[in-house]
Each structure stands twice: as C-alpha cells, then as structure tokens.
Amino acid sequence: MDFSASGRAAHRASRRRARLLLFGAGLLFGLSAVLARLASVGGMDGGQVTFVRFGVGILAVVSVFTLRPGTFRPVNRPLLVTRGLFGGFAALLYFLAIALIPAGEATLINNTFPIWAVVISLFVLGERPTFHLALGLAIAVAGVFLVLGGGTTRFQLGWGQGLAVLSAMAGGVAVTSIRALRATDNAPTIFLAFALGGFAVSTPYALHHWPAGPATWAAAGGVGVVAFLAQLFMTEAYGALSVAEAALWQQLTPIAAFGWSLLIGERLTGTTVVGVVLGVAGIVYGSVLGHRPRDVASPRAGMAAGIPAEEP
Length: 312
What we know:
By secondary structure, the protein is mainly alpha-helical. It contains 13 helices and no strands.
C-alpha cells in the first residue's frame, strides 16, 4: 500500500472515531440537560448550576493533569481565552434562559449554534459546506423542533428567548475556536480554558442563597461530571471533522435529552417519533454527503488532522 492510500485510510479511521465520540457526547450532553433540569426544580438557579458544573469540571481536569504529568500544554493562549470566555458565557446564558422559558424552547433556540458556527467557519477556517450539508442540517433542525416542541413551540421576543439566542451565538464562536485550537492544543487543556471561563462568569451567582437538598446537589454535581466527559469527547472529535459536520452530529443532544427525560415521566408522542427520525436522518445524510474534500497540502487542512496520537 502506498503512502497516500495509507494516509487516506488513517484519515477515514480518524473520522469514524470522531463520529463515535460525538455520538457519545450527544448522549451525555442530553443527560446533563435533564440533570440540570432536576437541579433547577430542586431550587438552584441557572447561574448556580453553571457554577457547580464548572467547579466539578475544574477538579476533574486537574485530576487528569495530576495523573498524567505533561498533559497540560497550552500553546495558543489567546484562542484558549476566547474559547473559555465565549464557551462560559454560552453555558451560563443557556441555563439562565431555562429559568425564564420552557427548557424545550430554550434548548431548541440554543441548538441553533451550528448555524452560527458554520457561518463563522466559512470566514475563519475556510470551510466549504455543500448543498447536501445544508439540507442535512435543515432536516436535523426540523427534527429537533418536532422533538422539543411537539410541533407547537412558538418563538416570542422576550428576555428568555433573547438569552437563548445570545447563548447560541456565543456557542458558535466557541466551537469554531475549538476547531482551530485542535491543531495546537490537546482536549484537556482546551477544556480547562472552558471550565475556568464558565466558573469565572458564574461566580457572582455563588453569592445567592443555596438550597440544602442532597438530591439537588447530587443532580448539579452530576451535571459537572457528565458534562466534563461529554466536553472532552466533543473537543477531541472536533479535530477530525469540519465544524459543519460536527455540528450536525450534535443535533443528537436535544434528541437524547428527550430520551433521558422519559425516565422522569415525560411521554413519547407520535410527533416526537417523527422528530427523532428526521433528526437522525439529517445527521446521517449530512455526515455522508455533506463534506467537500480538502486540499491536503493546505495549512487549513492541518486543522482537520491535527490530533496528536498520544492525546487522551
């Protein structure tokens, strides 16, 4: 087998691994959303849930650095700061939106972040989305709408909706920065920047009155643990896929959130089934046909293949 054929095979294997990681991340992020909902029902406000989430995340990633000395290797510090601040604000705004509008509507609006990420990546990373990718994204978003809104979600111009839109925009910047950072920085280092940013922007909410129920604290702590694992999966995967295709895979998050919510008594309707089918179909369609081959000699192509072999 010649070198070029071997390189293509390695590239395909890397993409398959990235898709599997994003599938796992979607399931875990969905579980995180349900745990956050339970914590909110128990009396924690959105800012407090964010504070606990990132506090747990910082402890978890510092443990990784302790167990594997040398893992913490910041390279692109300005972009790490960008990832931390925009990602932190995106998470905080999302949880604050949930406190003002129904969780399904907040998640639906927040999940438009792929649209912002794709637009940003066109100018920043030189991505070239195809018609198939755009169609796949439209189908997936339609499925998410049906799953979360039951076909009846109405968009109203209010504080909650505005916060959710701002969260989606900040998330678009954050995931685009991840895409660029994976050429230079490893997943745990990028996650630490995110966790520090989220912890910093949510610190004022730590001054509020805290609920005392152990179940509430368990749910909030679970958000931190589950979100930590999901974030590492997502960050690792973004090194091998375009922002647009990775964003398509992340349409699984709200679908998974609804699936997990069945465990707390929500019903599965016919409209929801249609939404799940559309969501999965959009992801698969866009994933298979939606990416345009890159010029492997271009500097930007390195961003797609820049995952060091020793990374966790």
